[in-house]
Amino acid sequence: MTTSRRAFLLLLSTAVAPPLGAQPAYPNRPVRIIAPQAPGGGVDLIGRIVAERLGRAFGQSFFIENQAGAGGAIATQAAARAAPDGYTLEIGYVATHATNPAVKKVPYDAVKDFTPIAMIGGTPNVLVVRPSVPATTLAEFVAYAKANPQQVNYGTSGKGTLNHLAMEQFKNAAQFESLSVPYRSIGQAFTDLMGGQVQSIFPGVAAAMPHIRSGAVRPLAVTGPKRQPLLPAVPTFAESGYPGMDALTWYGLVGPAKLPDAIVAKLHDEIDKLLASVEFREKLSSEALEPMPMAPQQFGRFIESEIAHWTRVARANNIEAE
After folding, report:
1. Omega of the bond prior to 27 within 30 degrees of 0, cis?
2. How confident is the model at residue 17, as a pLDDT?
3. Cα–Cα distance for residue pair 55/3, rounded to 1 Å
4. How many Å separate Cα 135 from the centre of its chain?
């Protein structure tokens, strides 16, 4: 081979070879999104919508891996321990990144072990009662509960869950007694509510809507700063004289700590586009969910504030889960 030909081939190989140490474009292989809940719930719903959108945007497979158990702690620990390369993400939500850390020791740090990527959306909570409870307003319910402290037991999806903490916060504000009855899921709590074993529940609006529509339960008030579009006749707690009742079942996308800024930016930008789309907003609205776009740093501060808030509520009511 002539010297000139060697020089030409060397020049050609230098031109087409990637720079030393350069990384292939992200993502160049399938991405796992851990959903810390069994299939069929809100976490699973949000996860599958997000996975489908990111897959189309990046031309790569984003797949959901459901991991139920321990209130999401096992799945969240797995996400925290994953390599910070963008190929393992998680749908972090109010249980895994707010109420669980507030009421019990979990095998991860909800702030330090994660990189916030994007807030997606949330649904307020609603206090509902059996039709047989003689109360059509929040004031009537409080009066009835004070007059009948042994007759207003309420169901929860477990000790230290959002619907448990929110009800304890309300009881503390309104100064009435009511025994909490924990179940393994909010669905089981609804079954016993309709069977007469408990008289009220404080679930997310999304979980309550089928039962409200069927007439099986009566809604009295919703959390948050404004009325819920699906329940325009139901006042907020603030309107009813109880400000500060802001419980929200929220969902976001997180990754392990030290996720590269470039990967965070790519994922966040696509989630932002998703939240801006009319189709997605209508889908969320039909599930009683509202888009909540936030910058990654803002989402991180939101998580910190949620943990601090529910820690205060848990301590004020001596709530500590196993």
Report:
1. yes
2. 42
3. 48
4. 30
